Amino acid sequence: MLLHLLVTMKTLTVIFGLWMLITGVLLVQSGWSLRSKNSFGWIMVIAGVLSAVAAVMMVFNIGTGAVGISTLLGLQVLLTGIALVLLSFTKKIVGAGLRIKLNP
Fold first, then answer.
1. CB 3.0-4.6 Å disulfide test: which of 9, 35, 92, 104 passes with 41?
2. Residue 24 burial (CB count, 10 A)
3. Number of folded domains in the chain?
4. pLDDT tens for residues 34-78?
5. Cβ(45)–Cβ(27) below 8 Å
């Protein structure tokens, strides 16, 4: 049972690392073509290079990659929770405004 868990962890880490590598290469390519038009191209190039470096580190150091994936997943869940709370407040404010307009 534990063997399957470790294989799954390693496989997911490698897949996530390859996804980050492809994303980094595409960011560098897009940023390189946009660099002459505005300064955001250079930001995309830098983000792509950092993503590619992190991807290579993640693929070749599985343990660190797994910790990185766990951290990113936890951060995503936290930010989604904050966004849902803000959405609920926004819906409450918009709903109150609509009730005032509909019932003068």
1. 35
2. 20
3. 1
4. 887 777 788 888 988 988 888 888 888 888 887 888 888 888 889
5. yes
